[in-house]
Amino acid sequence: MLALDRVSKTYPNGVQALARFSAEIRQGEIVAIIGGSGCGKSTLLRAIAGLDRASSGTVTLDNEAISSPHAKIGIIFQEPRLLPWLSVADNIGFGLADLPAAERREKVVRALERVGLAEKAQAWPRELSGGQAQRVAIARALVPQPEVLLLDEPFSALDAFTRRDLQDHLLDLWADTRPTLILVTHDVDEAVVLADRVLVMRPRPGRLFDQIEINLGRPRDRNSPLFETFKRSVLTSLDRSLDRSVPDRDATQGPGQAMWW
Amino acid sequence: MISDAPVLQQASEPAENVAAPSRAARYARPLLGALLPLALALGWELVVWLGWSNGRLVPPPSRIFATIAELARSGELVRHIIATLWRVGLGFAFGVVAGTLLGAVSGYWSLARRLLDPTVQALRAIPSLAWVPLFILWLGIFETSKVALIAVGVFFPVYLGVMGAILSVDRKIVEVGRTFRLSGFAMIRRILLPAVLPAYVVSLRVGLGLGWMFVVAAELIGASEGLGYLLLDGQQLGKPAQILAAIVIFAILGKLTDWLIEVAAAPFLRWQDAFVRVKGA
Known about the structure:
The complex is a heterodimer of chains A (261) and B (281).
Chain A: E1 2-10, E2 16-25, E3 30-35, H1 41-49, E4 56-61, E5 64-65, E6 73-76, H2 88-92, H3 101-114, H4 130-142, E7 148-152, H5 160-177, E8 180-185, H6 188-194, E9 197-202, E10 207-213, H7 225-242
Parallel strand pairs in A: 3-8, 3-9, 6-7, 7-8
Antiparallel strand pairs in A: 1-2, 1-4, 4-5, 9-10
Helix pairs in contact in A: 6-7
Chain B: H1 5-12, H2 16-19, H3 23-49, H4 61-73, H5 76-108, H6 110-124, H7 132-139, H8 143-167, H9 171-179, H10 184-221, H11 227-236, H12 240-265, H13 270-280
Helix pairs in contact in B: 4-12, 5-6, 5-8, 5-10, 5-11, 7-8, 8-10, 9-10, 10-11, 10-12, 11-12
């Protein structure tokens, strides 16, 4: 289980990006974090990844405090961030340097097939389209089999068709080992398609505003009335989070009260 | 779904085929560049041959090549070339080693940069030839002062190139290394070195160019052999053909050594090389 306990982040310039954010995320759960710009979504994700240290509060994974990048936590960024000097196959195997070469090669080949890029194994990253590059990034993050995979607006730079394709593809890959997915997004559709639970954040300072359970089976039909209902409730909550006249629910104060509902 | 993948790839295949130039066009382009100098050379040859000019101060190409052939036959040419190459090679080696080390330290470690860089930049502002009298006083008139001067010329572009390249490594790529928990050394080997390499090769080539520049300066000051000596000797004895012969050989050697660096680096820059080719087409 991933536990966030009153995680706060204040940048050196005095901006408070994140204020006392608490949540508990079960192993294998898919959580979407959504919110207006400047609500600290990415800050939160970077704290979980161990890339930035929280100013106060703790991130723990299976009772182990996270303060630097951890083997059990993978991350996919908004841009693919492939290493341009490595072939597609070597990019995917980048996190497997400790394994014997034969085992590494086998895993890479399997991952390449799994993301449908087997014939691109020896291509350079610059030869890939945006969608292909992001699929390589997904494979690179998944190949070391992390327990938690963080995604920072991973599909926002892609066109609608490719985005949809990759969302389905991500779920497909997730089903293999069922890691915990924490997805930062500003796309309500994406949140409702993917997540078991949507966390709505509110800005200045970034804090938890609302959580919505998405009780929909999978695969989800983007056109079903129920899907629309969930979408609308997320949208409503999002609107309220940006409305300054709506007060904070006293939801995130104090330990043990994270599961306030 | 995964079954959509082939469709997606087809739609987004980069336009490599379109960009690849035809074989003929690839060879025609460099030839086009050779047209002007060849025409000038032939034209001048013709002018002298027709007697419109005696070609004493500007000898025609045939006389320059005859001079080169004569120097080669007597074995003198090889002696001069070896002397010059040796100086450039040694100075280049020292300059590259010092420039790489200091540049890497300054680029990687900000305290060292604050400490070192202002001094290095101040020294860089001094025209390098201004060192000559001092080097001769310190190191004597013979090889050491020449090699030192060349090394100074090579040092600065390499230092600047390495430091700048390290400073401009994409933070986002470094972060990928961090998420895979690369330690300091692994980070240097797997992220920083490959990221820095293209700029490093450029700085080596610039450094080598300056090395050739300074070897001429060094040999003009006082040498009994070397291509620079041939230049001076040609001037003092009024042999323009010999001066031009030395210049031609400088051009050939300079191009050749530059090409060597390019070829040596090519296997490591294939990922980038291809990029340039597609873009340049």
